Each structure stands twice: as structure tokens, then as C-alpha cells.
Amino acid sequence: MATLLYLLSLFLFRNAAGVAAATLWLFFLVRLSKVPFRYMVRGLRAIVMILALTAAFHLFLTPGETLVVIGKLTVTKEGAQNAFFLSIRLIYLILGSSVLTLTTTPNQLADGMEKALRPLQKLHVPVHEISMMMSIALRFIPILIEEMDKIRKAQLARGADFESGNLWKRVKAMVPLLIPLFVSAFRRANDLALAMEARCYRGGAGRTKMRPLRYRKADHAAYLVTAAYFAAAILLR
Amino acid sequence: MSIILNKVYYSYEEKTAFEAQALKNVSLTIEDGEFVGIIGHTGSGKSTLAQLLNGLLCATSGGVYYNGRDIYESDYDKKELRGKVGLVFQYPEHQLFGTTVFEDVCYGPQNLGYSQKETQLRAFGALRSVGLPETCWYHSPFALSGGQKRLAAIAGVLAMGPEVLVLDEPAAGLDPKGRDEIFGLIGKIKEESNRTVILISHSMEDVADHVGRIVVMDHGSVLLDGAPGEVFLRYKELERAGLAAPEAVYLMRDLRERGFLVNEKATTLAEAKASILEAFS
Asked: Is residue B156 situated within a structural domain?
């Protein structure tokens, strides 16, 4: 929740004060999470290309007051500003969400979501089912990646070629990957459903948890602090 | 026509916190026409070894040579290599995708660039040699039974006409009857074509009956290498590696300890039976 608010707040700031507030808050969160800073920065590597591209586009293509002219490209004041804010936003987006993913297990995440959405249950929203689905989906991502790798290797061993040819050829080369992957995903889903049924799973009502999520003082305080930060972000924009 | 591995090292996820050394200084020569069993406990590096043989994985250091050529040379055609060294993965039925079994088997030779006629001829040949009944050639591979799916997948690799056939745990997850069928089939393929066959397994019993040479892997290195009789005589080392010699070996040892003149080198049930009958007659 806090992450979501933080991500929202990133889109609010338009000036230096906002940036400073977001930076301070992020720094505070990172220190609090005790995750080594190096790990977080490593996550940024994946978006370096996107970052550079968007920054460049904004830098050169925003109309406005001219600052510097490099050949045919013109850097405008607005462009530089936009590029700067956008890059900061993107970096903080990734860092902010990695604080969440690096500190919280998928199960905690699903539990937290179930709790936060509980009020919606009054409106007949199947909250437990949604959070169950989410935790299963999260659990299955690494399994399917592993499966994909196995299938890819098996098809490579049969002379498959995923790297050459035009776009159409490459798309067609994916068929022998995707069909077995889907088949195995369905097989796993079936097995899981059967296993759940064998243990008499029947949904949310009256279900207890092995490790119930209980809010302590610190958690309530966290809600308050987050709300305060969000309010500050709105004010500072 | 041989495969040579020279001082091969392999690590997964190199240079990260998750680095795990799978192979350590493995040197191995496999001659043409050999029937080799590679045995090891889970995590001993045997599957990694299999994927090095056809260039799916690239050794961290060391060299792999096929027919005298270094497969890591930049102009070496990896696709051709994979056609020549056919690798059947564990649970190969998970790779099936064609609308019909026949179409699926055609996939390999098609990728290698054979003409349509040649591809179909090869597919027919492969399906026939694994003994899949003709009635199911044009069914969806997903409609077959587990054992039949596996046969179809093996046919898919055989259709490429490999000179070397590498099978990773071909009998995993099959019932005893299915196991016997698969090993019978592999023996038959070996006899008919005299290809090099490399069988990877964690079970001594499976391998002992068929192969002419056993390579025992332990923690990423080669522990023992030799004929089954010789390897099984060193059962103490095998046990230390988390493996066991076939039951027949222990029986023969016990009999000898009690003063019966049986052949210690008997490793298969049939050999043991013959030797016992001889000693008692």
C-alpha cells in the first residue's frame, strides 16, 4: 500500500522540493529495510536502456526555450527539466518497488492485500479468492521460467533455432516453446487444484491462518507516516 | 569419431552469489560405438555433462572435441552438432507440441534442413524403430499414454539420425514394465545401428545390465571409470558417493566370504545365476 502511494506521489512533484522529499523518503525506507544498497542498484541495470532513450527523447524533442544546439538537435530548458524529472521518476519507481519485493515474501504480500481489501468484502468482492489467485500466480512465475528453460533446451537439442530469421520466422519458432509450456501450466494447475481439494480447501469463509497477520503499533504508525508523507507530497508539488 | 572432454570445468551462475560448481576437471574420452553409462547421485553433474556434449552449455574452462574438432571454435556449426549428438532430456514427453505425433517427429530433421521427403522418411524410420504402433502416428501426441509419449519423444531425436545418442534418465517416472521396455528399446537401437550410446542414470541396476563401460560421477568429478565388473568391485567407494552396486554384486561377495567359489565379477542377475549354478554343480 505504502509502495503504491509512493509510486503515485512520484507523479505529483514538479519542482525541486518534491524531488528532495521523495529522495529523503526513499533513503529512509531503504535504510529501514536493511537491504544492501548494492542489491537495489543492480535492479536498475535492466532499465538503463529505457532510461537513456526516454531521457534523450525528452531532452531533444520538447519544444520551448532553447539552451544549446548540437547539430540538428536542440536542447530546450523545458526538455532538460522534463528529462531530469522523468529519469528521477523512473529510477525511484524501480527502487521504490524493489524495496517492496526485496523485503516482503509473496505470501505476506497476498496476506497484506487481503487485509487491506477486507472492507470490499461487504460489497461482495471475493477478496480472499483474489489474494489466493495472486499468491498462486506469484508462486508459479519461477516454476514456469524454469520449465521454459528446460523446454527451450530440449527444442534446441532437436535443432531448433530461436535467434535467426525475420520476425515472422522467430514468432513461428516460439510455437514449439509455448505449446508445451501451456500444456505443462495446465497440468500443474490441475495437480494443484486436486491437491487443494484433497486437503479440503473450500475458500475464504471461516478459514484460519497458520501465521495470522496482526497489526502492531509499528504497523499502524507506518500507515500514519505514509499518509503524512503523501499529504506532504501533495502540498509540496 | 569420438568425443573428448579435456579438463572441463563448469559453474552455474558464474560470478554471482549463487555460483555453483557443477563440474570439476572432467576429462573423458568416449570412443565410437561405445555403450557408456554415466552414473551419479543427484547433483553430481551428470545432466550438466550431457548438455555439454551437444553444446547446449558452454564449459567455463576446458575443451570439448567432437570427431577431432573443437566445438567451441567460432565457425563450428552448433546446429549440425546437435543433429549428430542427439540428446534426449529427462521427461522428454514434456517437449511434444505437434498436432500429430508424426508432425512432431518431423520437427528435428526439418530444423536440420532436410527436404520434405527425406524428413518424412526419417520420421517413419524413427517411429518404426521405437516400436510405436502405426495406429497412433496421426493422433495428437497429448492423447498418448505416458510411456508412448516418451517413445514418441525419443523418436523425435532419433529422426535426426544422430551418430551419438545421449539419454538422460530415460526411465524416470516409469513403472517396472515401462523401464524394461525402454531399456530393451535402447539396447535394440544400439545393436541395430551400432551408434555410440550414452546412458545417464542414478540407478546402477538399470545400467549394469546393458552398458559396456561405466563412468561414476561424484560432486562434479569422475570418481571411477571402467567396465561394470571392475567398477562394481569397488562398491565401498560407490557407497561413499551415495550409490550402491547391484544386488548381485553383494550376493556374490557374501557367497565368496562363506567359501563358495563363485565369480566375483558377475554383475548382472543372469551372470550371477550362471556362476552360482556352476559353483554348486
From this structure: no
